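Reminder to self: tokens first, then the designed residues, so the page reads top to bottom the way the pipeline ran.
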């Protein structure tokens, strides 16, 4: 792909890193050209060079954030990499439900939720397979740095192409309302999920109350964009807010940066992590 020799891509990479901790490889500088066309248009500019000169004046923090968000990779799908959901259904959730039978409450976090499919997949899994949770307090939190994807998650509206990726036909019929080319999650699914914008690399984490811990955290396919130190700090924070018997799922190619505080568990053809408690 074509890049322009007159554009200071290094400045753009540094700006994105400073705001989202996403490390962009110079071999992918062309992504600035393709992804910032809308930003350029909105600014009434025609060249990336012009945008960089404007940014260097450091007078527009909103524009800086818009650029960092535009450079995020938002790829996701319903029941992505299926096995974690299957393991939750067959093994992990029955045990957690038994352990929480007195509190009657379960809390999930889809950290870096993108357009919301991960959170809604959890909600559908619970509705479909755990009717005994009726009357329990179930909270599924979804957060992402990118305002645009959070708005889409909140709307819970998906195009036919997104619906065709990972959703069983019976779930489409049961949990979505159909309008033209789009499907919208039904209120019973929607009301279980709460979405908001949050940066995982800013301290404190969006959730930090040690007395209100999560039972299951999905932190999938986002750490691969972070530097090792950022991963380590993030996972230390996640460790603090995960229940001692809680479960962490990472993306299939991701590992905890600090293996000392996590126990990997291989089960159901996937790997999840348990927080190791200080002895
Ligand atoms: C590839 S998507 C993964 C979505 C979902 N977790 C999955 O596995 O399907 C990565 C998401 O991470 C978000 N992201 C990147 N940097 C972030 C940060 N510093 N804080 C929060 N979210 C971030 C991006 O906006 C993007 O939506």
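Designed residues (279 positions):
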């Amino acid at each position: 792909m074509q890049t322009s020799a007159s554009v200071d891509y290094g400045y753009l990479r540094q700006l994105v890193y400073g705001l989202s901790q996403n490390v962009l490889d110079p071999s992918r500088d062309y992504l600035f050209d393709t992804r910032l066309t809308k930003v350029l248009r909105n600014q009434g500019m025609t060249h990336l060079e012009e945008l960089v000169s404007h940014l260097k004046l450091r007078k527009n923090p909103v524009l800086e954030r818009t650029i960092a968000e535009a450079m995020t990779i938002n790829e996701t799908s319903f029941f992505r990499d299926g096995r974690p959901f299957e393991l939750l259904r067959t093994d992990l959730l029955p045990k957690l439900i038994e352990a929480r039978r007195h509190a009657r409450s379960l809390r999930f976090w889809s950290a870096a939720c993108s357009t919301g499919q991960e959170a809604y997949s959890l909600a559908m899994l619970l509705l479909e397979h755990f009717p005994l949770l009726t009357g329990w307090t179930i909270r599924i939190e979804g957060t992402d740095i990118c305002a645009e994807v959070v708005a889409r998650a909140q709307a819970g509206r998906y195009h036919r192409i997104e619906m065709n990726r990972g959703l069983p036909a019976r779930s489409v019929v049961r949990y979505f309302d159909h309008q033209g080319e789009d499907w919208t999650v039904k209120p019973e699914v929607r009301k279980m999920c709460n979405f908001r914008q949050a940066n995982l690399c800013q301290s404190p984490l969006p959730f930090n109350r040690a007395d209100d811990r999560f039972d299951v955290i999905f932190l999938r396919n986002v750490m691969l964009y972070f530097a090792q130190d950022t991963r380590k700090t993030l996972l230390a924070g996640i460790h603090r807010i995960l229940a001692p018997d809680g479960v962490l799922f990472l993306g299939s190619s991701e590992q905890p940066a600090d293996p000392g505080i996590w126990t990997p568990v291989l089960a159901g053809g996937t790997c999840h992590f348990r927080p190791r408690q200080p002895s």
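The chain has two domains: 9-70, 83-275.
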